[in-house]
Amino acid sequence: MKTMRYILRALNSRNFRLFAVGQTVSLIGTYMQQVAMSWLVYRLTGSAMLLGIIGFTSLIPNFFITPLAGVLADRWNRRRLLIVTQVLALIQAAALAVAVMTGIIQVWQIILFSLLLGIINAFDIPLRQSFVVEMVSDREDLGNAIALNSSMLNSARLIGPAIAGLLVAAAGEGICFIINSISYLAVIMALLAMRVEPASHGGRARRRILHELREGFAYTYGFESIRSILLLLTLVSLMGMPYTVLVPIFAKEILGGGAQTFGFLMTASGCGALAGSLYLASRKSILGLGRVAVMSTVIFTLGIVCFALSSSMLISLTSMAVAGFGIMTLLASSNTILQTILAEEMRGRVMSFFTMSIIGIAPFGFLGAGAMVGIIGTRETLLLGASFCLLGALLYAKQLPHLIREKPQPLP
User: Fold this and answer.
1) Could you tell me if residue 201 is inside a domain?
2) What's the structural domain count of the chain?
3) pLDDT at site 297
4) Is residue 204 scored above 60 in pLDDT?
């Protein structure tokens, strides 16, 4: 019991506790929609390329918009901005639900809805990442809050796909979109109920947005510890993360299943990711997180290799769990490293580049994977990506002793 209280210590902060409840409900709906969307596209088209295009359009706005969102996060009230993004996401999900339930949905409409949600998320994600510090009353609990935030995400990955798989099989994809639109109300109400002191921006004079964007870029990529972890994340997002859009192909063509099989595979990934985030939440110190990032990349790579080679449901589920553990441990440990070493005045901008490295780069990988499947095959595409991820882990490990000794640079 004492251990569990230690793992959940960030929940002692009232605002973070409210956020945890609302965000968990909302994320379950989000993952239900994600699974339903992928299955809908594959059911309508049977095209790996279109799965890649949907993944591309849902995430490509992060590449262009997220850096701007980081500047806004350092300028304006983050809680109010988050309320706006959640309301817009609710409207998008409701409109998608209407289109599917009335039977008028077409592939071009799915692409459009995916693009709209991507634009909303491009603002929302860096805001949420930088807002975590404002919700935690004790700064020593920041690392724990980041790990618990990842646990929320992965609890949703555990529950959402399983529910979606059952509902899609029983009633079609539309019901998942309806539930997702309703789920946004939970996080909106949580944000409205918070009592938050706006983050101090250090009294620094505001300059033009482009100037502050350049300032953030110079700070982020001039600090080698930040630059190295972001480059590792970029490589993993580009070459490793495309496995997520290829899962429907494995579920149907290799494992001979349907929507339920797809849901179970995604749930297995969520189980592993949840275990990874709980492992990080149980850590007493941020010391050694650089080594954790290396090992988690290696674990992720092994999971992808085993999944690519598997024709067994049991091995595929286990491999997805291993991959989920690896990728979430990498993301959460990297997030904690960055949030700990960056300057408060740069938090929004640095976290926007963090988001860009993970989500903004991923659509290029999705699109490339969709094309590569037609050239070299599904298994071979995953194995090629895994080899690049392993190379990235080895290069980062080689730099790590130097990075540990690096001192934070002053603000520009």
Assistant:
1) no
2) 1
3) 94
4) no
Counting other chains too, the contacts that 393-399 makes at CB distance below 8 Å and 24 or more residues apart are: 393/232, 393/294, 393/297, 393/298, 393/301, 395/232, 396/228, 396/229, 396/231, 396/232, 396/293, 396/294, 396/297, 397/294, 399/228
CA angle at residue 160 from 158 to 163, to 5 degrees?
Answer: 110
Tokens of 117: 């949600």
Residues 325-354 have pLDDT tens digits of 998 889 888 888 887 777 777 877 888 888
* Distance, CA of 376 to CA of 383 (rounded, Å): 11
| Residue 134, amino acid | E
**Whole-prediction pTM value?**
0.73
193: amino acid identity, one letter? A
Domain contains 411: no
Residues in Cβ contact with 228 at an 8 Å cutoff, skipping those fewer than 6 apart: 396, 399, 403
Phi/psi at 265 (nearest 5 deg)?
-65, -45
Q: Is residue 357 part of a domain?
A: yes
- Quick one: CA dihedral 309, 396, 347, 405, positive or negative? positive
Instruction: Round to whole Å and give the CA distance between 33 and 178.
Output: 9
> Count of CB atoms within 10 A of residue 169's CB?
15
Angle subtended at Cα 85 by Cα 38 and Cα 341, rounded to the nearest 5 degrees: 95
Tokens of 242: 């495309």
How long is the chain?
412
The CA dihedral of 218, 223, 226, 232, to the nearest 10 degrees, is 90
Q: What is the CATH number of the domain that holds 118?
A: 1.20.1250.20
Percent of the chain clearing pLDDT 70 (strictly above): 89
Does pLDDT of 191 surpass 60? yes
Domain, as residue range, for 107: 13-194+209-405
pLDDT per position as a tens digit, 25-77: 888 888 888 888 888 887 888 776 777 777 778 778 877 888 887 888 777 78
Q: How confident is the model at residue 21 (pLDDT cuts 50, 70, 90)?
A: confident
Mean pLDDT to the nearest integer, 378-391: 90
